[in-house]
Amino acid sequence: MSYTVLLTTSAVADITVAKEYYNSKNEGLGKKMANEIDIALSKISDRPEVYSKRYRDIRMAKIAVFPYLIHYIVIEKERTIRVLRVFNTHQKPLWGG
Q1: Inside any domain, residue 67
Q2: Cβ atoms of 44 and 61 closer than 8 Å
Q3: SS3 of 16, please?
Q4: Could you give the number of structural domains in the chain?
Q5: Phi/psi at 74 (5° precision)
Q6: Residue 80 lies in a domain
Q7: Is 73 domain-assigned?
Q8: What count of other Cβ atoms lies within 10 Å of the Cβ of residue 18?
Q9: Would you state the torsion angle of the CA atoms of residues 60, 29, 18, 15, taken in this order, to the nearest 10 degrees?
Q10: Could you list the residue range(s) of the whole structural domain that residue 81 is in?
């Protein structure tokens, strides 16, 4: 049985910015990127333990084709996946100086 996937406001904003960026480069590319995110979220929902914990209880899943990592936590007792952020791996991290 799959887990329910919930996106935080920050994750939704990350995806929106990414879609807009890719559409500005090539119309329709943002939709392709969003589709790749949907595929990755479906895989996470089916088997969240496949991706290892990177820090604390946060797991990361790479999106195919595009340079993004989905950061998420698993809430077992609720059978929920909470997506915290969707980071572009080519940009400076938010916590860096």
Answers
A1: yes
A2: yes
A3: helix
A4: 1
A5: -105, 130
A6: yes
A7: yes
A8: 21
A9: -60
A10: 4-88
The DSSP 8-state label assigned to residue 94 in this structure reads T
- What CATH number is attached to the domain comprising 42? 3.30.2310.20
Q: Does residue 95 lie in a domain region?
A: no
Angle between helices 9-25 and 29-46 (to 10 degrees): 140
Give the pLDDT confidence score for residue 93 in this predicted structure. 53
* Biggest CA-to-CA distance, the chain: 42
Residue 12: which H helix or E strand, with range?
Answer: helix 9-25
36-80 pLDDT tens trace = 999 999 999 999 999 988 888 999 999 989 999 999 999 999 999
pTM of the model: 0.88
In the chain, beta strands by DSSP E: 4-7, 53-55, 58-62, 68-75, 80-88
Sign of CA dihedral 56, 61, 80, 52: negative
| Token pair listed for 30 | 């943002």
Rounded Cα distance, 82 and 91, in Å: 23
Instruction: Please state the separation of Cα 59 from the chain's center in Å.
Output: 10
